[in-house]
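Incident review: delayed structure delivery

Summary: a single-chain prediction request sat in the queue longer than the usual turnaround. Root cause was a stuck worker, restarted by the on-call engineer. No data loss occurred. The affected request and its eventual output are reproduced below so the record is complete for anyone auditing the incident later.

Affected input:
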Amino acid sequence: MKILVTGTAGFIGYHLAKRLLDRDDEVVGLDNINDYYDLKVKYGRLKDCGIEGDEAIEYGKLIKSSKYDNYSFIKLNLEDREGIERLFKEQKFDRVCNLAAQAGVRYSLTNPHAYVDSNMVGFVNILEACRHNNIEHLAYASSSSVYGLNENMPFSTHDNVDHPISLYAASKKSNELMAHTYSHLFNLPTTGLRFFTVYGPWGRPDMALFLFTKAILEDKPIDVYNYGDMKRDFTYIDDIVEGVVRVIDNPPKGNKNWSGKNPDPSSSKAPYKIYNIGNNNPVKLLDFIEAIEKAIGKEAKKNMLPIQPGDVPATWADVSDLIEDLGYKPNTSIEDGVNSFVKWYREFYGV
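Output delivered after worker restart:
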């Protein structure tokens, strides 16, 4: 298949592109390479896939990989409507996986417009391009943050998610609603993927594992929010990618049993579906920190702080639909995942 993957200078997008390339799909990667976090990591991911040039990469120009014959990359903003329209018209994709987004809960408190531009304006541009170019399936990143004030555990895609507590979460919820209208009106198969705290090699520098590892190695204190009384359903990157690939390969057909009298939020009569992709095994934050300490061989200095605005105390993914529909359940242990990350971190930064 010929697949557009947006966000390929990003964490999940980079890993997904490599996985699709390794099974001989033709991939076009897209990213605007913004400076939300360390560009060295973003350019490093691109370079690992044969996309050279760093700051010299020209905007709007498709470049070929020096490593993969079946990989091309374009630097482009999702909110660039003409650029997106032109790319779809010229490349004639079979399927699309939209992972590009302005990420981060805390950043959305101070930079709200970045989320509207990328996650909402950009997403409608992707939907329109899919609609007008006969795309077989649009898979897209949502987030576990959409569960917001919901306290039913584990978080189920069949639960109501109308109470987000950050603009980031609201923008992801809006993506699910926008996708449903396109599935309903234009019969465009869409699948939303609610990712739960993804971690692993080449991870995001703004996330806990990266921040903690860096601080411990530099003998600096780590910020532990809610005084450590947090639980997260940490999910290893390889498990996430396996789930995404299975989703891309299986476009939704619509739920024949769906009823407007008792509407199930996770499906529809239209070809629309939502999945959680998480480890289904929440880990205490202090246990996670202990796993990092063991992998590094050094104890962390902890700066205990209250919970941050927009944060939730716990996440836990119900993945029963993923198991039932696609025969898959993430299963990498925290110890194995953290060890892999710390090994990569030491090699990448030479520490």
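Verification: The radius of gyration is 20 Å.
Action items: add queue-age alerting; document worker restart procedure.
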